[in-house]
Amino acid sequence: MDFFLSEVFSFPTVIFTIPLIVLMLFWLLAFAGLVDMEIFDLDSDINPDSTIDGKASASGTSFLETLGLDGVPLTVALTLIDLYAFALVYLMRKYLTPLFDGVISATAIGGIMALLAVVVAVPLAALCIKPLRRFFETHEGTNKQHMIGYICTLTTGKVTEDFGQAITEDGQSLSVRASTPNDMIKGARVALIDFDSVTDTYTVVSEAELMAMSSSTEPLSS
After folding, report:
1. Longest dimension (CA), the chain
2. 131 and 38 within one domain
3. Which residue range is the domain that position 105 belongs to?
4. pLDDT tens track of the chain, all 222 residues?
5. Closest CA to 34 of 200, 203, 185, 192
6. Residue 36 and residue 49: Cα distance in Å, rounded?
7. Can you tell me whether residue 191 is helix, strand or coil?
């Protein structure tokens, strides 16, 4: 075990070890519902009238498509790339480094191995992403305004004015927001009552709040 730890925290393996640890911690938080797995994704619904932001988004999306890393959250792509790069560098450091002793400096061969690992890891990650895309379909054909009134299930531990995610019955993952304090927790059924096209988020209330709102708007019988 000591030998393994020494290897993974030595140059160049450590370049990928530290990001891998960070990513594993991120996924633990994501599975616990404390963070949104799409937190680092580019906003695909930027207003086209905003030229600068629009160009930035299009450029980023095009770059990911070129590499074959589109169609899944950016965190998934980064995790796959880092996993492959980590494994490749570990193996190269173990089996190839001895072949270059005295020929190239350890720093130089380490840098070359790290670069080569990334170059090989990207297409390997793209290959793995292909079958995963169907699990992250966004169903863009649905008019988001028409989803007002839908009942969803909260997938994060809480929902606030700037955090929250829910899933519809047909599997669509939505970013949701709500005023605080509230008693909505993971697994709670919530209703979409408004959509903000600027932030691409829905305002939600609990089913009980929706029923109360509906009752208060019913006309009094004469």
Report:
1. 98
2. yes
3. 2-136
4. 677 788 888 888 999 999 999 999 999 998 888 887 777 775 544 444 444 444 444 555 678 888 888 888 889 999 999 999 999 999 998 888 788 777 788 888 889 999 999 999 999 999 999 998 887 765 554 567 788 889 999 999 999 999 999 999 888 889 999 998 899 999 999 999 999 988 889 999 988 888 877 665 555 443
5. 185
6. 28
7. strand
Given 107, 136, 165, the domain boundary residue is 136
**Do 164 and 115 share a domain, yes or no?**
no
Find tokens 């997938």 and name the residue.
155
Helix (H/G/I), strand (E/B), else coil: 75: helix
Q: For the whole model, what pTM was predicted? A: 0.58
Domain count, the chain: 2
Let me know if residue 222 belongs to a domain. Answer: no
Q: Answer yes or no: do 118 and 162 share one domain.
A: no
Please give the DSSP secondary-structure letter assigned to residue 194.
Answer: E
**Residue 193, domain CATH:** 2.40.50.140
Give every CB contact of residue 12 below 8 A, 6+ residues apart in sequence: 89, 93, 110, 111, 113, 114, 117
